Amino acid sequence: MDIRAINATSGYAAARPATKVDPGYTPGSIQEQAKASFEDFTQTLASSEQISVRAMTGDADPHALVQALAQTELAVETAVTVRNKVVEAYQEILRMPV
User: Mind listing the pLDDT tens digit for each residue in 32-59?
Assistant: First the structure.
């Protein structure tokens, strides 16, 4: 068995599903939470880009590339969903009678 397959399997098992509650979550101000979310989003995109570049040059494991792309896709979909909710809330505010 290939050692890279074992590493990929353990990496997938260690990944926290998106539906689970983060055990390290501590309530704070909305600004702190938004800042942390934006920083996580930026870090995810940057690390995925680095792994993609390494994969193109042959220095990265293909499994790492697939995992990075999946994380990036999830991060972008989450950002788009949040943006849509913000736009929807703004439109609801505009429709309120004054």
Answer: 888 888 888 889 999 999 999 998 888 8
57, two tokens: 């040059």
Between the alpha carbon of residue 63 and those of residues 5, 6, 50, 73, the distances in Å are: 8, 11, 14, 15
The alpha carbon of 70 is separated from its chain's Cα centroid by a whole number of angstroms, namely 9
Cα 82 to chain centroid, rounded: 13
Joined together, the tokens standing for residue 76 give 């972008």
Give the C-alpha separation, 44 to 60, whole Å: 17
pTM for this structure? 0.61
Report the C-alpha gap between 38 and 76 in whole angstroms.
11
pLDDT in tens, 65-98: 899 999 999 999 999 999 999 999 999 999 998 7
